[in-house]
């Protein structure tokens, strides 16, 4: 019974300490779990795929702009480079989509 009384008496002081630490920005807690490390790995993989998708999209858009420009013989190397980038970006996008679709849940 004495421990319960001491706990009740000490509770307001403990709550005050927590509130003080939170208000000063000194409150920290650490969570360690296997699920969280798996979540971190999953977020990293998703971020990599998102970045790859943005890079592929920018390659397709940039190459499309170059390919839709008026074709002159002065810019023939630029045209072929843009065509190569366009085709490789489309191929990489298809490979990325297949990897995403074949991923096991």
**Which spans of ≥5 residues are poorly predicted at pLDDT below 50?**
none
Number of domains: 2
Residue fraction in strands: under 5%
Number of strands: 0
Radius of gyration: 29 Å
Helix fraction, binned, reads over 70%
What separation lies between the terminal Cα atoms? 52 Å
Structural class: mainly alpha
Mean of pLDDT: 77
What is the general shape?
elongated
Number of helices: 3
List the helices and strands and how they pair.
Layout: H1 2-24, H2 34-67, H3 76-101
Helix pairs in contact: 2-3
Distinctive features:
79% helix, 3 helices, mainly alpha, single chain, 2 domains, 105 residues
Description of the structure:
With 105 residues, the chain is mainly α. The chain folds into 2 domains: 1-30; 43-105. Helices cover 79% and strands 0% of the residues. The chain is built from 3 helices and no strands. Helix 2 (34-67) packs antiparallel against helix 3. The mean pLDDT is 77.
Question: In a nutshell, what does this entry contain?
Answer:
By secondary structure, this protein is mostly helical.
């Amino acid at each position: 019974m004495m421990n319960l009384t001491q706990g009740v008496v000490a509770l307001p002081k403990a709550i005050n300490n927590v509130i003080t630490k939170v208000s000063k920005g000194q409150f920290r807690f650490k969570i360690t779990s296997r699920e969280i490390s798996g979540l971190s790995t999953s977020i990293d993989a998703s971020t990599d795929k998102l970045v790859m998708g943005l890079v592929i999209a920018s390659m397709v858009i940039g190459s499309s702009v170059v390919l839709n420009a008026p074709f002159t013989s002065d810019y023939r190397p630029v045209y072929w480079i843009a065509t190569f980038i366009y085709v490789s970006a489309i191929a990489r996008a298809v490979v990325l989509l297949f990897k995403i679709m074949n991923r096991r849940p």
